[in-house]
Amino acid sequence: MQKRNPWCWLVLSALLTSFTVAAQTTEVLWLGQSAFKITTPGGKTIITDPWLKANPLTPPEYKTLENLGRVDVLLVSHGHLDHFADAPAIALMNKVKMYAPGDLNQTAALLGILPPELLPRFNKSGSVEPAAGIKVTAVHAEHSSVLVWKSPHSGKDETHVGGEPLGFIIELENGLKIYHMGDTGLFGDMKLIADFYKPDVILIPIGGNFTMGPLEAAYAIKSWFQPKAVIPMHYGANPLAKGTVAEFLEAMRGSGIKVMPLKPGEAAKF
């Protein structure tokens, strides 16, 4: 009987372990405001709230939408320009459906912004599987939503129904749950979301004025959630949204929950 070389088995075992670890890695790349590029353990790309071309925080590389690469899942939390702006172009470029508030997508279809087959409708507590192994559930967000669109006929801006704003629970192939809060103020049923969905990573607005500021965001996390990590968003791009990471970190002092501030173009891995 041929003897097995123990060194070969050790090397093979190490390679298999390395492959397994790599296959389980999730990358969350911040592109400014509420825009993220999430690379899943299965190699899929999820884009959220893509305001990129006009976003002062977006790294120059990503102002060219083609540099996002293949997009498998596109999520838009509501109709405001700093969340919706580049979504139609990304949807058309990748022939990928834009998952957004149902009434926002109804408006986009009626205005001819995108073809109906790229505008699925769903709403709060509704779950969809936009790509194999990826589950997205719409949850409540305390905000507003209108769509301002320049009419190709008159050349003037028009205000249209934008549906009710959403947050998203994004469950990946390995079970990791990312809660993208969208634009939201503080609301008591965040506790229900925490208890029922138990998100591992939370992307939370801290800018204030339009959303929670640092104190409200810290209160929500410290009171109701037990995530592996929190990544602040929706700050720094609009002078009215004055909340800062320093203020959020100070408000989170003593919680023991990991806060991972990112610079635009930086990524966190899980």
Provide a quick synopsis of the model.
Helices cover 24% and strands 23% of the residues.
Molecular structure report:
The chain has 270 residues and is of the alpha/beta class. The chain has one domain: Ribonuclease Z/Hydroxyacylglutathione hydrolase-like (Metallo-beta-lactamase, Chain A). It has helices spanning 6-23, 81-84, 87-94, 102-110, 190-197, 214-224, 245-251, and strands at residues 27-30, 36-39, 45-48, 73-75, 98-99, 127-131, 134-140, 146-150, 157-161, 166-171, 177-180, 201-205, 229-233, 267-269. The strands form three sheets. The protein has a six-stranded mixed beta sheet. A six-stranded mixed beta sheet has the order 6-7-10-11-12-13, with helices on one face. It has a two-stranded antiparallel sheet with strand order 8-9. A hairpin with a 2-residue loop joins strand 6 (127-131) and strand 7 (134-140). Helix 6 (214-224) runs parallel beside helix 7. The chain is globular and about 55 Å long. The protein starts with 5 loop residues before the first helix and ends with a strand.
Task: Give the arrangement of secondary structure elements.
Layout: H1 6-23, E1 27-30, E2 36-39, E3 45-48, E4 73-75, H2 81-84, H3 87-94, E5 98-99, H4 102-110, E6 127-131, E7 134-140, E8 146-150, E9 157-161, E10 166-171, E11 177-180, H5 190-197, E12 201-205, H6 214-224, E13 229-233, H7 245-251, E14 267-269
Parallel strand pairs: 3-4, 4-5, 11-12, 12-13
Antiparallel strand pairs: 1-2, 1-14, 2-3, 6-7, 7-10, 8-9, 10-11
